[in-house]
Amino acid sequence: MKKPFAIAIHGGAGSILRARMTDEMQRHIEQALDQAVSQGHQILAQGGSAVDAVVCAVSILEDSPYFNAGKGSVLTAKEMVEMDAAVMNGEQRQAGAVAGVRHIKNPVQLAKDVMQQSGHVMLFGEGAEEFAAQLGYDYTEQDYFFTDRRYEQLLAVKAERATALSESDYPDDHQFGTVGAVALDNNGNLAAATSTGGMMNKQYGRVGDSPIIGAGTYAENHHVAVSATGMGEVFIRCGVASDIAARMRYLKEDVHTACTAVIQGDLKKLGGHGGVIAIDSSGEIHFGMNCSGMYRSSIDIHGRKQIRIDAYEV
């Protein structure tokens, strides 16, 4: 009997302003979501692992300038990118993460190698890039990541001396930029991956929830895989991803109930806006958010594909 497999991805959540999204921009975003979820699903359909599927999907989103990860990363106060990523394999709860990397085209791929080849869980900054060099990764100049759109956003933020804009010129000015994927393969293994450029105008080597296992990324066979996107500091304080898994493990809640309880509960009370994507051991997919939108897509166990942006779209 053929076992179920499925995949879900996200490209960030927040106050996504449709009124400021051109038809061309929406088309590029939806095309990238379609390509990412389709290629990840193809790996699963060919008997590939959930880990390979989520890394493939996230890499495609990292290559797009329309998401806050990889090529499209926001700029720090020093006008450069500092990227974070994590991968987790639910089979034995293996995990790998990198933080504060500046010259790696696809941080999620390096996070996978940290998990599989380093003997560690997280590597930071120069150490992570030294490890990458030993594995033969190309050194990617900062110019690759620079886009006019991100530079204009940074200048506007600096003018307001803030890390978020009160007046929006782009549809994602209030978006909590992260990309992620979760998957179930036909061996019953779950996996999650998350990647981000972090917070616009960030300082002091700030690291958010994306590379922190149990906060922005988590996978545990027989229960759930989760990738989060939102206000990183609050997601860390609430241990969002691991809290969802714990509710399923100990309270026997289904994936929808557990995600809703966390996203609409203490996280929201503490001012943590954003969302999660999650998939359980039977392939049931959940998109949860307490904000107006999330770039998202999935292909379920029946092969049905969906691509959505607004929160009300089901």
Question: What does it look like?
Answer:
This is Isoaspartyl peptidase/L-asparaginase. The two termini are 30 Å apart. The protein has a single domain, classed as Glutamine Phosphoribosylpyrophosphate, subunit 1, domain 1, CATH 3.60.20. With 314 residues, the chain is α+β, with helices and mostly antiparallel strands. 32% of the residues lie in helices and 25% in strands. The radius of gyration is 18 Å and the shape is globular. A hairpin with a 4-residue loop joins β10 and β11. About 3% of the residues have low confidence.
**Rg of Cα set:** 18 Å
CATH level-two architecture: 4-Layer Sandwich
What portion of residues belong to β-strands?
A: 25-35%
Tally of alpha and pi helices: 9
Helix content: 25-40%
CATH class: Alpha Beta
Straight-line N-to-C gap: 30 Å
Biggest β-sheet: count, sense, barrel? 9 strands, mixed
One letter per element, helices H and strands E, the order comes to EHHEEHEHHEEEEEHHHHEEEE
pLDDT < 50 stretches: 164-171
Q: What is the mean predicted local confidence, pLDDT? A: 91
> Which fold name fills CATH's third level, the topology?
Glutamine Phosphoribosylpyrophosphate, subunit 1, domain 1
Helix and strand composition category:
alpha+beta
Multimerization state: single chain
The beta-strand count equals: 13
Coarse morphology: globular
What is the total domain count? 1
CATH superfamily: (Glycosyl)asparaginase
